[in-house]
Each structure stands twice: as structure tokens, then as C-alpha cells.
Amino acid sequence: MIQNLPWLFLVLPLLVAALDWVFFSKCPKTAATLSILSAAATFGLCIAYLAGLQTGLSDVYVWMPTNTDALDLHLGLVMDPLAMRMMLVVTGIGLLVHIFSIGYMKGDGSNLSRYFAGLSIFMFSMSTIVLADNLAMTFIGWEMVGFSSYLLIGHWFHKASAAEAAKKAFITNRVGDFGFLLGILLTLGVFGTLTFSEMGNVSGAVAPTLLTVMVICLFCGAIGKSAQFPLHVWLPDAMEGPTPVSALIHAATMVAAGVYMMVRLQVSMGTEIFTETACLVITTVGAITAVMAAIIATQQDDIKRVLAYSTLSQLGYMVMAVGLLAGEAAMFHLYTHAWFKALLFLGAGAIIVCCHHEQDIWKMGGLVRRMPLTVLCFLMGTFALIAVPGFSGFFSKEAILDAAIVDHPVFFWIGAGVAAITTFYMTRLCLVAFLGKARAHGAEHAHEAGATMVLPLLALAAMAIISGYGFVADYLVPAEGFTAPGFHFGCTFYVSLGALVLGLVAAIVVYGWGKRERDPLAGNFIATALRNRLYIDAFYDKVLIGGLQNCGARIIEFIDSALIRGLLVQGTAWLVGRVGILLSWLQCGSLRAYACITGLGLLLIIVIIAL
Amino acid sequence: MMQDISTYCSATYTWGQFAPAFILVGLAAALIMADTFIKTLPKRAYSLIAAIGALLVACYVYDGEHANAFGVLACLGTGLSILLAYDYTKICCASIAGGTGDEGTGEFYALPLVACAGILCLTQARDLIMVFVSLEVVTLTSYVLAGYFRRNQGSVEAGIKYLVLGAMSTGIIVFGAAWYFGMSGTFLLDASVTIDTLRGGSVGCGTVALGFLMSVALLFVGAFFKVGAAPMHIWIPDVYQGAPTPTTTFLAVASKTAGFALLCALVSPFRPLAVPGIPVADMLITAFAIVAAATLLIGNLGALFQSNAKRLLGYSSIGQAGFILVFFVYLGGRFETFSAMYMLAYTLATAAAFFAVAMVRTQRGSEEISAFRGLGQTNPRTAFLITVSFASLAGVPLTFGFIVKMYSFIALVAAMQSWSCLIWLLPVMIVCATAGFYYYFKIIRAMYWEKPQADDKPLCVPFCTGLVLTLCAITLIIMGTWPLIRAMQ
């Protein structure tokens, strides 16, 4: 019994979600309490396991037995340091977000039970991904997080943009998941198993091309879930959801699942499976995402969208690290990023609430005087993000740049450049929103947020500062036997310091000390392109959805009308209709006919059996 | 020379085996006496007592010394159908006494117990005499129940049709039993008897084997009639539609259980013969496969165009019986276990569906599918529970219905390892499983995609209906999601 304690990670949130949905949909307070208790319990359990609680191996369930062992659908848990420390990030941030949500959603007219049920079902799904001991189970969790993300983005579904964004996120992820599913099937073909712990040995010689295809297919899943180019379009739109949801799902945990999955595969398959071509593809995709998202972020006015693009850009860093076969660095950055990005989002949430749901930074201003504590926390997150030496983000970014510097100098310089742009747009955000005087009514009446919102911020701020140092990181970074790099003064250090200074100076020169009323860079065609997200979304809408789909639709329509409708459907319908008429003729209601049919049936069966 | 009858039957029974049946008969007798002599007690109370009695006996059968799955299913089905009668009192009174008075409704609640006792005896039967007697207890009671709403023309028609066709099937069974006795010299249903007689019996003559097969065919036809397998299904749509809804539930759930218990008793003596190359096995399997395919096709295709919910469920019961018959196609397998498991999934979902139909009939006055319109808006929770039961009938993953339907496919695939020619049954099953999605979802569509009409009030869910719908839905989901086999790492 005791060895099955880890199943609580999955069962508890799922149960709570069901209870919230079914029984407490009219009592939001009970629902919220239950959800928070479940998050706290899983967090406590996680800490207990990290502190050395040993319960033995948990049971593995065969969910869908088939005749062959390899094809059985197992449900099993893996409890190695990688999974458990990742669980700490998930449950820790999850708990803080749950608590923050109380303050954030206060006075909101929507059904809060639905909201907390969604959060709980997300915790269940995310735990499934993290703890899954085989790819099939990962895929189940993968789809479940997609589903819960759909529910939560669309929480305010009466708003058309939220409903659209939820749909967009779900459908875009479908594209990636299709590749992921192919990758899983290829994995089954190559290794003969989907269980991570049994993937160690390749059966016989496998063509490198096949391995490349397999890895890239699996990476497709990560492209969709971690919003990498070209499937990144859903993440900025996902900001239509409530801000705590953005913090938990679209910044800290779910979008990092792609990175986690890739690292999990590298650990279990061995890095030699990741062929050079595959690695190059992964690194390039990461680099493109990092650069593109950072540039677009410089011209966003919505505080949440700036953060969303910075998330994209940071995910690009992590994916780059995966491609450089530096899984430890990727997980290190994932871990620090989770804390400081959750902090930034929750801080933004507090600011948005206190400015009466104003999200445009040009309508804020002077917030440092009205809500100093929140702004201070937000600044801690910003320093971590722009990699000020000594803050957590600095160490993890160093680790990634270090991984690139020797063999892939191109990616090193791309990383450094992105760091400079990151500093630029984050400084712009802080200068415009916090300094100067209030530019709109909402910001004038801003005030410090309540305790349920400030306390999570303080906790996260502490983590944003200290989580990069060895005395925390060595125990908490999701990687086996991790040791924090600490300070070392080399080429990387000076380059990133240079990038930091460059970004800071540029931002202060352009945006001044909070005196500007509007963006001095706006108006030219580059800025317009950036504001329109480099027309990628429009391209998808017009060309892919409009053009290709309509063109394809015409061909398919021809096949449909001529072959399928004409021959198959109408043919089948005609046939079924005839059968139906025959049956209704049989079913005429006449007792004598019934007896006659029964008698004929009797004869038939006697003939078959006895003769 | 006359011999003692016991040497012919030679199956020995103990009183303990029939204790649950006696309890039920005793309870029924007590209720009928009370119905006659105690005037003050409202008749509705009898239904509660009878239902609780049946469900308690289900627990007793489940736990007792002579535990068997079909007995539990029969008690469960009977209990649920009597509970349904409790919520259906208004219509019962109108259709029996012709007004709001409850005169004459008491027996309607007590009689299913007698039938259930018959099924319990049937599950214990190991010779044809016991089979026949217990089967008569079930069917005679069912005739009365089917025609019980004497002011309702449909009910009377259903009663007559069921009586005539049922009598015919009983006749076939008796005829088969006579042949059986004539060829084998015993009524005992046993593998050794079967093998002996197929070798030509004591005289070693091939004609004896032929006559024996003839008797077996007759007996099977009797059982096919009870489970509603094609072409002996013909009575089902009319009787199900016409009979009072509680009785329809009883027929669809408990009476079908009796049929499958009978079929198991008849088929199990042939299990040792299920080896490729033995002609008897080939013939039996061919016969089962043809009957299963015909049942699947008729049940599922016939259901496609139905607009009456009760008639739809009638066709659905035929279609589901087809999936259960596939277990018998795998003659060497554990068809008792799997058909009982399928019956459990079917019982829970079908009973819940009939509760829903009865509730809609009582409050909206119609049994048409269109009467379910807009329940998703007026009664979202009830609509969800109903959705679960219909989804389980259709075999949506994560419901119990999916698991058992999958087992049906697995049984066919297992059978195909020895009889590869059975592969033609696979597309039939796939088509029929797909067709199921179409017609079961007609109800779900009516609930969610159709707007409620202006004067549609939210349905008031009676207590028993709410309880049964909830419990059935929870069980269906739990059984559908619970990991099936636990393997220690």
C-alpha cells in the first residue's frame, strides 16, 4: 500500500477536479479550498520524497492488456531525481498560483468552481507527464494538459477572443501532436518498447536516417507544446486566459513540458541516438524562436504579451540547449525560468488587477510609488530574466552559453544577442510601467494588492534570487547529480555582461526615465511588422488556412461529391435503407408472420448444426 | 421397465442452492397476501419492499456459498426494474386502475420477484427438467407482467404476442428436451453425456449422434429466443415497445440474463470439443457466428431509423446480444465470465436508460427521442448522467461499455487463431459498433443540440431515478477507467 503513495500525485488532483465539477459547482469556496488542499498535499508529498522518504517501487498497472507484452498500455510512475525535482517545480508553483488565484479571481463573475476544477485537472495532467514511465502515458498526459489548457484559456468563454484563443491553442497543438504520435510509433519500432527505463539498448543496427526522423518527429511534440517556431502562434493568444493560468501553464510548467520530455528522452535513450542532423534541427528551431520572439517583444504594449514573447524566447534558449546535448543546462534554465517567470506573470497579474484590468503598459506609469512591494518583486523577476549577475537566471543562461561556446560559436553569439534584446524590452517595460506619472485613470487609483497575492509574490521573488546558487540548485534542479556552476569569470561572463549593459543603456536612451508618453520607435514599417507579429499569424490565416485549405477543399470536395457521396455514402445509404425496409417488412406486427419467421429460423439452425 | 426418475436426472441438488429463490418466492407471497388483506398500506410501498428485497438477495447470492454471476445480475436487474416501477406509479395507476387509485397495482410489484426466483433456479440447473421448470416460472410471470396494463392497448398486444411466441419457444425447448432424452437416455447436461452420445451412445450408431445434434439445435433455438438472437429476435421490438416500461426493463435486463444463463448451461458441455478439426465444433461455431452476425446486423441496422426511445432500446438489446454471442463463438474460452461481465455493463447502462425514458415519459408524456430535447440545458446534470449510460452502450472509451465491447473483439480474435475463417465476422462487428454510435447518439444529440421548447419545464428528477442514474454512471465510469489487471512490479 505504502509503495503506491506516489499515485496520490495523480489521483488526488483528479479526484478534486471531479468533486469540484460535480458536487461543488455552486460552492466556489469549497471548491477552491479542496483544490488548494490537494495542491498543498502533493507539494508536501513531493518535499517528503526529496527529503529522502523511501517507499519502494510503486505498482505498474496494465491498463489496456493486449496479447503482446510490448504493446500493452502500462501506467507506471518513474521516481528518479529528474522527475521528483520537476514535480517540486510543478507542485510548488502550482500551490502558489492556487493561492494567488483567490485574490486574483475575487469579484470575478465567472464560475470559480469551474476555474479551480480546471487548475486541479491541469495539476493531474502535468503530474502525469512528469511521472510517466513510458511514452504512451506521457502522450496521455500530453493530451490532457492540452485539454486543461483549452479549458483554462477559454475560462471567460463568453469573450469571443478567449474562445478563439482556446481553440487556436488546441488546434495548433494538434499539428505537433500528430508528429509526436508518429515519433512514438517509430520509437516503438526502433526500441521495441515505450518504457523509458528499457530504452537503453537499440535492437540491432538502425539506420541513422531513421533515428533522425524519429527524434525530429518526437521533437514535433515539443514544438507544439513548448510553442517553438513555426507553431509558436498559440502562446501569445493564450494570454486571454486568467493571468494565474498564464503563470502556471503558459510560463512555468506546461510549455516547459516539451523540454522536459526531450531531456527525459536523452537520458533514457542516450545522447548518441540524437544524430547530428537531428540536433542541428532542434538547435536551429530553438535559436529562430529565441531571436524572433525577442524582437517581436520589443514592440508589444500589452504587459502579458511582452512576457509571453519573453517566455517563447526563453523556451528557445532551452530548446537550443537540448539541441546542443546540454540537457543539464536546459533543465537548469527550465527550473530557474519557472520560478522567475511565474513571479513576473503573477506580478503582472497583481498590477493588472490593481489597475482595474488595464493591460497596456502605456496606460500605466508611476506604479513604483503606489504598489512598491509588487513592483519590487516584479523587478527581482526582471533582474533574473535579464541575467543580472547574482540572480538565478544569470547562472542558468551562463550554463547554456557555455554549452555553445566551444563547438557552436554561431549559437553562442545568437544567445548573447538575444540576451541583449531581452534586457532591452524588459527594461522598456519597467521604465514605462513603473516610472513617471500615471497616464490613465486605472493606474492613478492603483493600490497594493492583498495578502493572498503578495505572499506568493514574495515567495517566488526569494526563489528568483537564490535558486541559482549551489545550496539550493544542487538539491532542486531537475537533473541527476547536478552541481551549480557558480561564478567563473571567462569569455561568457564578459560577453553576457556586455549584452546586459548594452540592452540597459539602449533602453534608457530610447525610453528615458519614465517621461515618454508614447513609444518613440513606433510608426515605421519595422515596428508595424513587429506589432503584427511579423505577419506570421496572418500568413497562417490567409495562406495556410485560407489558401491551402480552400484549394485542398476543392480537390477533396470533388472526391467527396463524386466518389464518396455519390458512390459510397449514397450507395451504402441505399443499401442500408433497403435493409431497413426489409427489416420493417419483417417487423410487420403480424403475429402469424412472426411465428413463421421464428419457425424458419429454427429450420435454418437445425440445418446448420445437425446436417 | 420403469426406473426411478432420479436416475434419469441424476443431477443432485441441495436445498441451500435454492435458498435465495425461496426467499424471493416467500417475499412475493407475503407481499401478495398483504396486498390482498391490508388495505391501509399504499401499494407503492410494496414496490420499495420488493426492490430492496431483490437487491438484498443480490448481495446474498454474491456472497453466498453458491455464488454465481448470472444470479447476481438477475437480482440486480429485477431490483432495478421494480425500483423503476416505484417512480412509474402514476402511469401504473392510470393504466391499471384507470384513475389515480392504486387498486390492483400491488401484484405488479411483487410478480417480478417470482420471475427472479425462476432465474436463480435456472442458474443452478444442471439438467433439463430443472431448466424447463425454472424457465416456465420466468416466462409465465413475464407474460402476465407484459400485459399487465390492461387499459393500454399496446400493453395488451405485447402480452398476447409474447404469450404466443413464448409458448412456441417453450414448445421447442420441450421438444428438444424430449429428443435429448431419447438420444442420450438422460436429462443431465454434462460433457461426458455429450461426448458419449456423439460417439453413438450405448448402441454406437451414427443416427443417435445426428438425433442428438437435432435436439441440441432445438434447445439452442429456445435459448436464442430468450436472448433475442436473430432470427428469433422478432418478438422483441413489438413487446419491448408495448409492455409497461418497468416490465420492458425486466425483460431487457433480467430475462435476457436468464437467456444467457441458459445458453451457458447448454453450451458448456461442448467446451471440451472446441478443438479445430472436430466436425461438431466447426458446425457449432459456424452456427454461432452466423447467428451472432445476423443478430448484430439486424439489431444495429434496425435501430438506425427508430424514433421511439423504447423501441430503439429494444433493437439495442438485440444488437448488444449480438456482441455477447461472439463470446460463444470462442467456444473454448471462458464465455460464462465474459458474457456475465458484458451483461453487467449492459444491465447498468440499459437500466439507467430505461429510468431516463420513464422519467421523460411521465413528465413530458412521450417516449419519442424528440422528447429528450434540450435536457442539456434544462437538467444539465441529469443529461450528463444519461449521456454516460448511452455512451457506455455505444462503447465510448473510458466507460465500462468500451471495455466489454473490446473483450468481445478480443474473443473473436482469439477464436480466429484456431478458426481463421471467422475473419468475416470482424468487419460485421466493426460496422455494427460504428452504427451504435449513430443511434445511441441520437438521444445525446436531442439532449444537447436541440433547444428546449418554450413551455418545457426542467424535469423534476424523482429520488430513485436520480439515485440509480448516478450510481450507474459512476459504476460505468469507474469500471471503464479502473486499471483492469494489477501487476506487481
Task: Describe the overall structure.
The complex is a heterodimer of chains A (611) and B (489). Chain A is an all-alpha fold and 611 residues long. Helix content of chain A is 71%, strand content 1%. Chain A has 24 helices and 2 strands. In chain A, a hairpin with an 8-residue loop joins strand 1 and strand 2 (73-75). Chain A starts with 7 loop residues before the first helix and ends with a helix. With 489 residues, chain B is mainly alpha-helical. Chain B has a domain at 275-489. Chain B contains 20 helices and 1 strand. The longest helix of chain B has 32 residues, at 153-184. Chain B is globular. Mean pLDDT of chain B is 88; it is low at 485-489. Chains A and B meet through strand 1, helix 23 and helix 24 of A and helix 8, helix 10, helix 13 and strand 1 of B. Strand 1 (60-64) of chain A pairs antiparallel with strand 1 of chain B, so a sheet runs across the interface.
